[in-house]
Amino acid sequence: MTLDKRAGQRFLPYGANYLDWSDMAELREVIDHRVLFRYQTEQESMASRLERTAAERLGARHALAVHNGTEALRLCLISTRPSVGDLVHIPAVTFVAVAGAVLSCGLIPVLVDVDESLALDTGLLPPDARRVITAHMEGTVAPVPAHVPYLIEDCAQSLGARFPDGRQVGTAGYAGTFSFHHNKVLTSGEGGLVVTGDPAAWARMRCYHDHGSARVPGSYPTWNEDAHFGENLVTSEGVAAVQCQQFRHLDEVLAGLERMYALAVDRLPDRPDLSVLPRSAGDAKVSVRMRWESRELRDAAVAALTARGIANWTLNKYLLPEHPVLTGRRSPYADGFPWSHAPAGPLALSADGFARTRDLLDRTLCVPLSPELPEPAQIEAAKAVQQALETV
Ligand SMILES: *Cc1c(COP(=O)(O)O)cnc(C)c1O
């Protein structure tokens, strides 16, 4: 069985939804205004509008837009005033950007094993952990550790997900980061955002992201006597306009995912060698995550879906202990920075050398959902998934 052509084309990984010329009012506004640089104007810039919208929607006090989610992580880390070589505990299963952000700030990642749900196992954290990045992967809501001075939530894959008490992910600790890369809940191709409830942290981030300056919008930057260096991570008005347009559709996206999730889970074949990984009510339902009895079955399911043109992915690529960027401790710096500052001994916390995690990843498969499809097309797509998996 194959999907009809139109449904097949649109049955894509989530991302790039709702992009339509009839709906780009913010982008037209920016072009009409003829200002592409956010600090060119004293009025509320499009970037500021995005930050205000995001902060309100997420229930955060402050937001700051940057170019991508990796920069957002770097900015959070730098704003904690670390020393070179300080340790940062990160999940052993996440996108390599998390490790890259840590290392590029001169800090050393410690890989913390994950629990059954593939989220950082907070029980493995040492009591004196100061900097922890947890990642809410695939629209899930990871448990967050208490009493960590600098808890950074990487919400790149989980914009709009909620904790059981209703708070949005990204607001539980020191700061939260988001990405608007092509393959995320909302997209502007590239884009990133930080939220924080801490006004001093926000001020440090804002300063660093604009050359260490204390710029007043509408004017050239100024530097205080005690200024430190910074970089240029300032977003641009055109990108912010697309992000504002996307944000208008966030609730629709989440509702469309929710609807298709129910349809797809309902139609999964009832077989003893296949189980659906549970999702909580507050998850952003970006995919159906399933677990097979063996790697062979999982791989057969990948082949069956792929042969029918149905998007799917596995999570093995996220196993950081085996990632080439980490295994060799190589560096673009001639002196090996910052690995040259790493303590001796392994930089991993796992009871079994990640054996259980490796096995879980080998048997896990995700099928992304398409929020913008009308319900009949979602049903067709869900049936196509069902039929493909029945042949395994
Ligand atoms: C995409 C992603 C990032 C990086 O975001 P970019 O905007 O691509 O830099 C970081 N962490 C996770 C978990 C991601 O999925």
From TrEMBL:
Its cofactor is pyridoxal 5'-phosphate. Keywords: Aminotransferase, Pyridoxal phosphate, Transferase. InterPro entries: DegT/StrS_aminotransferase, PyrdxlP-dep_Trfase, PyrdxlP-dep_Trfase_major, PyrdxlP-dep_Trfase_small. One of its GO terms (molecular function) is pyridoxal phosphate binding. One of its GO terms (biological process) is polysaccharide biosynthetic process. Pfam families: DegT_DnrJ_EryC1. The keyword Transferase applies. The active site is at 184 (proton acceptor). The modification N6-(pyridoxal phosphate)lysine is found at residue 184. Belongs to the DegT/DnrJ/EryC1 family. L-glutamine:2-deoxy-scyllo-inosose/scyllo-inosose aminotransferase subfamily. PANTHER family: DTDP-4-AMINO-4,6-DIDEOXYGALACTOSE TRANSAMINASE (PTHR30244:SF34), TRANSAMINASE (PTHR30244). This is dTDP-4-amino-4,6-dideoxygalactose transaminase. It comes from Streptomyces qinglanensis. The lineage of its organism: Bacteria, Bacillati, Actinomycetota, Actinomycetes, Kitasatosporales.
